[in-house]
Structures
1.
Amino acid sequence: MSFLKLMPLIKISHKWLSLLVGLQLLIWIGTGLYFNVMDSVKASGNQYRVKVTEPAADLTHLVEPKQILQDFDAAVSLSTITLLSKPYYLLTQDKALYPYFKNQYTLVNASTGKQAFVDKSMASELATASYNGPGNIVKVVKQDPPFDDRLKEKNTLWRVDFDDEINTRVYLDASSGRLAAHTNDDRRIVDFVFMLHFMDYAQERSFNNVQIIVFAIFTLFFALTGLIWTIELGFNGQYQFLSLFGSKAKSKQIKIFDKHDKLIDTLAMSSQENLLDSLLNHDIALPSTCAGGGTCGRCKIKISSDSRTTSADKAHLSQDELASGYRLACQHRSDELTSLTLFDVTQASNHLLKLISSEFISPYIKELRFKTIDGQPVSFKAGAYMRFFIPAAKGIAVPVNLPPELMHHWQDVIDNEYDHLACSRNYSLANGDGQSNELVFTIKIQMAPDSVVKPGIGSSYICNLAVGETIEAVGPFEDFFAKVEPTSAPMVFIGAGSGMAPLKALIEEQLIKLTTSRPIHFYFGARSQSDLIYADLFESLSDTYSNFNYIPVLSRPTDDWLGISGYVQDQLSLDFELLLGTHSIEELEFYLCGPAAMMNSSIELIKSKGATDEKIAFDDFS
Amino acid sequence: MNLLKISRKTHKWLMLFLGVQFVIWTVSGAYMVIFDIDYIHGDSLVENHQTKINPDKINYSLNALTQAYPSAERVSLGMFIEREVYRFEQDGKQQLVDADTGKLLSPLDKSSAVAMAKHEYTGRGQIILAELITKDSDNRPFELSKRYLPAWRINFDDMGSPSLYISAQTGKLVTKRHEFWRTFDLMFSLHVMDYEDEDPSNWLLFWFVLFALTASILGLILTYYRIFKAEPLSTDNNQKVEAN
């Protein structure tokens, strides 16, 4: 259905329109509620208004209308009216469509034929006659438009103020004596609410203004996109009426596999909530920023290729992925499947971590050590990473407590302050020896490439944490780890920069924790000696373990460097025959982590020598 | 994260029931604000004539009128097309009398009503219908108030199918309608969810508005999370270093 292709656009439109019109919508609904519940008598402003019934004029004692029309300016109409029991002729010289538009009147005493005027005392008497409240007149003034509580009125009016508890005001047309309106505090509140509902900030008492038209059109699209979304949710089975009444009702055993098709658990999952929520109930947190809206596309799992696809699945997954059975967890329920395969997560959970040490191990890389605040160890496979939640804060470009000997490396960096929003960043664990409860990270402080771009906000924040401070993190996510196979074939580790972290963990795991006898070669690229982090550690490991071979390669060494110069991938190429030894290329395992350029050319090289994809594991670094 | 989940779930469910009404509110609201209210009220359909009374044409005096109609009240002098006329109330009934000759003109015949409608009408459409609507008529349109009866309904063949209503007793234009106004009335009914009295104070509206308010607040929470608290999206979930 081609319509489904529009769904991502509809959802994105709905999201951004909500930002644009959301608050106004709240005002409309709030003021709408006010109109619904308000007391209509109070709202009219006529709480103390009474109908004025004047006695009919005795027509037999009046001056003939013909005389009046001859004596005064030409009129469109002449009417007999009674004001305060006296007969008058009202001549209308200019007649507008509505009384509050500009009209031109002349009032004539019908008994004498002389022009009459509505003076202050007459206005007061007329107002009093229409008023039955407890107040007395406190002020009578003749006023020209505009009136702050008679926005549409265009005629000169008498304004008669009463001192009752609601500050009643009576308005009378100054030239005709016509009672124009009663108004009071209640009415003024209503007027204010109308002003909000109509977005009538120019106070024209009109709902045909530009701003409301623009907002109305955007809101119309907002409602339509929402309705289409709702209908789409309905077609996708997202409205399960039973789920409204508890979620324990019906659950099903689902087999959970990891990405290597290893059965890791069998979990009871309710058919009345989506898989993302079900997994979360079992402390399995899939990555998700939209909490199941189908808009972030991150909660990828694999079910079966013949399961149905929703528009969100289609929007975020490729044809190949869909055909292989990949789906978004938030779009499906346990009643559709019997097993599922997880990718991005195994048993991740939230941890509050406390920093116990923070040391520079190169001019730009720090080693950070954390412990969980509750002292509980976090178990993880070497190579795993944690996701840190960086709060919104003020960042600084140059790290605090910079050791004096490193100052010269930072002298060209402009020391500016900047604000940043909350975000999350992933960092690999650098320890894998299984001998302490600490979580160790090596993090490179990312500098800004120029003065416009901010420095790396996550790395700056975390490297500037003081010892003893805490930070929230979720994990560990086990994505990059060593294969466990009964083989004696060599393992080749290739890294550079802070790509050190997961490789160090894997090497420590192999040597110290598993005491493997497999040959392990570690190629590590850096610019100069000062960037060669953990050199002492690896030198001592290679002294202790005869199967471990540490090969540092420097691209810009100083003159006193006795080791290998150049790029790691070039050295790897030179050493290749040596690495193979008695093994065939298919048996070797390669683990890479570092800058993209280094990884790409290394992988190209390894493949050209005949290695297959499944023997190459790499931790995407950038 | 929990607030986000509750908000999403509740918003989703509330909108299942409210979604259509939201569309109705926005469609009717947009209609009402986009069309100029003065146009809607048909102000442009009619000429606001300012023909002045010629005193020389008034040869039938008030005195003569009160003798002929002793119970006359609320007498006024004005124009009917190009003719000076008295209008007054006699025993609760409006009357129209020629101010020159004293001839009783009410109730208006069809040709006078048509002439009056043509005189007032600003459009170019032709008259396609002229019918008298009385208290006993079963064809009284909803848009014509009872207090104006009896009245002539004059329909024009023009954009929006305009109708002018001419009082058969006073000869005055009492009201006018075209389709845009009729639609406006419908839209207002839909907007306030009162399909009979167009009264915003009704319980149906109350409950809908209350739930709509809840749904909107939850929606704003979603907006906050999705736009202001969202992590920067990246296709690569395994990003290990800053790429800022």
2.
Amino acid sequence: MTSPLPADRPQPRSLTDLFLSFTWLALQGFGGVLAVVQRELVERKRWMTREEFVEEWAVAQIMPGPNVINLSLMIGGRYFGLPGALVALAGMLLVPLMVVLALALVYARFADHPQVAGALRGMGAVAAGLVAATGLKLFSALLKHPLGLPVCMALGGAAFVAIALLRLPLAWVLLVLGGLACALTWRKLGPR
Amino acid sequence: MVGGGLDWLAFFGHFLMLSLLSIGGAITTAPDMHRYLVQEQGWLTDPQFTSSVAIAQAAPGPNVLFVALLGWNVGMGAGGWAGAGAGLVLALAGILLPSTTLTYLAASWGHRNRELRAVRAFKQGMAPIVIALLVATGWILATSGGYRLSQWPLWAVTLATTLIVWRTRVHLLWLLGIGAVLGWFGLV
């Protein structure tokens, strides 16, 4: 699934580029940054392929800590080692933190404003669509999957039902369905 | 209220501990933060807690910033602006240090050993589950107000957004702006 990197593949030019890129995508991420990370890093900047994004996201998701923070750390670390990881982290947190603090300071004045509450509700509905669409877009990463599309669909469908409809704890779903998926893939990959 | 140095240490230590438990994101430990900060220690009021979470969700940036606001408010109650700054730094550092260190080490190890069959099986095997989780998260966010039929304008906005983002390359900020305008005028 992971193809060798072409020599002319785009990547961050410097730590400054990395910092500014992550600051910019964090500032676009209302209601969560993931959809923006996928759009910016996979589709626009092309620093990673869809397959790579899904693989990194699996690690970011399974480790403790905020998932997008983990993901940014891993991407920064991939290009510039520990300094890259720290710079990506700073990009995600520094400027957005200022914005959140500023918002908290003015919040008291507008909290009861019904139109402000309405705007937040509308943005929340859009944010939900952004996340769902990110999932659908990454779907094409499964076309080359070693298990084949039908098995992937069955596993994914079961995970969706377990989380979205039955609201089972994430840890159990990852352990049982994720474990099953990894074991099946392990068998399919075969010894090399 | 937060008093001497020992309390700050306990405060910092609690976030360090929660960091290691925060599989699936810091928000999954929010119920325990509420138990500790509001019910057990009385460092925050209920409205302070809820509004900290809501503001961070509405603001741009990663949702984990709600932890910074919690620290800010706890510190503000203990020692004014200086306390607020200290609370913010301790809470955010506490919730991030253990998890980011662990993730960095694990990811580096995984990348060095990426040709191992077990590593490839893990990363590729998780792909269908991870993708399904994203769609499920969208579903959960969209139905956070319940399944009442009166919610249909919100669902329509979510569905339209899903299709537009999936199929086109419209800038995401335009869509958020449209959502905000629809909400502002009470249309959703």
